[in-house]
Request: fold
Amino acid sequence: MTYDLVIVGSGPGGYSAAVRAGQYGLRTALVERSPRLGGTCLLVGCIPTKALLHTAEVWQRFLNPAADGIACDNPRLDFSKVVDHKNQIVAKHSKGIDFLMKKNKVDVIKGQAVLRGANQVEVQTGQGARTLDTKNVILATGSEARMFPGLRPDPDRILTNVEILDLRAIPKSMIVIGSGAVGSEFASMFHRFGTKVTLLEMLPRIVPFEDEEISKELERVFKKKGIRVETGAKAENIRRVEDGVQVTLTLASGQREELQAEKVLIGVGRKPVTDGLGLDSTRVALDRGFIPVDQFQRTAEPGLYAIGDVVAGTPQLAHVATKEGLVAVAHIAGKPVQPINRRLIPAATYTEPGIGSVGLTEAEARAQGYQVKTGKFSFMPNSMASILGRHDGFVKVVTEEKYGEILGVHIIGPLAWEYLSEGVAAMAAEATADLMMNTIHAHPTLSEAVGEAFNAIYGLAINA
Ligand SMILES: Cc1cc2nc3c(=O)[nH]c(=O)nc-3n(C[C@H](O)[C@H](O)[C@H](O)COP(=O)(O)OP(=O)(O)OC[C@H]3O[C@@H](n4cnc5c(N)ncnc54)[C@H](O)[C@@H]3O)c2cc1C
Reply:
């Protein structure tokens, strides 16, 4: 028999595409080489990190309960149980994907997939090779941690996102190299668990893709909390030493330093997984390892699509992988399909304070020639922030002066990722700054700070 669609990879891109294909009645197979479904996001990315970050937050509450009038003597953290709890959450959701595949009549085939042209996928299963004939293929093979040349991760000292999630004890000290979302989240997490953390970033600022003021605020708060942050800093010569790891650091000042810690986390980006995929049997020409696609996720080979982290120019985010999967399947099924509007892709970083952003930063908006008006509102006077005891951060909105077009919304503050979607929805609906100024926000909520930030454009915030 011939499938309508074979999907390679069961991360958020692949499994969501499989569900949608089932909903459209396409005869679909999902191939996954890992024993469990869910990909990077579920198994070693979004979900386990957020589970641990949540526990880090709860732990901080136990350590500092007095402000809430609670006495809690000698709280104890059983980190091994924390990791078990995280693993249970992951296992539950991986089973949830198994269920979704059954519900949507998707054949799940476990094994390593290799393309034989665009219409055949060979799968090395535990029971030998199996060839799947198909009209279409979606590649959703994702990404893995980028390493320094010649360096190999190990579960003991040199960690990536994979090994760090299996630690059974809290390290005394850790060097985190790279301050993107992954590095900053682990720095924030382990610092709260009690690890002495040093965060190194080669670029002039941490979370370098965020608005500059967001980077500055996160750096300020990290330093205030006791994380050592070095920007413009080059880390080299990472090596195992007797009781840990050593890194040669060249500081922004040019000064050199030998840094030592129990562990090092390498968080310097993600590389696409395309090796051994059989792309040489197709017309696809890789772009630095990534697969180029058009707005419907089509590659240069007819019938072959690619989605998610493996795609050239795609922001490496789970929800982007998912959306790209839905676009590809709609195109394959001949359904109405709208290409993704890249300006409307939200991004969240689950540090404390958290970050949520969508659209252009102030600098990007100015560089694109907009007459920019910004509004900013701090969480200091926000009553829900006081109730939560979390005042760091602000909401910053970037708008265009003449028509009040909303160009970007940037939040750093408690649970920023939750109410960022208000900014995304406003931009998607082409709401203006005026409309957002007049939108009523429930009280007391953190989202009131969003309304106040729009009012602040005109100096009209009430609680400033
Ligand atoms: C620590 C960490 C935290 C993150 N947190 C967030 C977050 O909070 N929010 C967010 O949006 N994003 C987050 N991300 C990014 C997110 O995980 C990725 O963007 C997302 O997983 C990409 O999905 P994908 O479907 O493209 O691929 P993946 O999730 O990487 O899945 C690819 C799958 O393909 C399989 N595969 C590869 N090659 C083959 C083959 N030849 N045959 C069979 N199977 C194959 C792999 O085994 C894997 O299961 C995080 C990433 C990391 C590392």
About this structure: The mean pLDDT is 97.
